[in-house]
S100/CaBP-9k-type calcium binding subdomain domain-containing protein (Oreochromis aureus), 92 residues
Amino acid sequence: MEPQMSKLEEAMEKVLDIFKQKCTRSQTMMKKDLKRTLRAELDNWLQNCKDKTKRDNILRELDENPHDCVNFDEFVYYVTRLMMCSHYYFQK
């Protein structure tokens, strides 16, 4: 019997699952696919973002060399940056 995961472990498993669904065998995804994934998975936050300039700048970075690949570390980096500029908790 496996030990029960904490809420943070469950959340991180979900983030990893999304990455694994979208990545290649080399455990990377192209920037254009990352942008598409972020728009789909973070749609509500992105639409309700108060700092639209910052949001747009982050997403624009993914347009530079769209065929370049990102690994999981970079995936989490972009998710975190968008969360920081889009989630209501950080917009107080």
Residues 28-91 form a domain with the Recoverin; domain 1 fold (CATH 1.10.238.10).
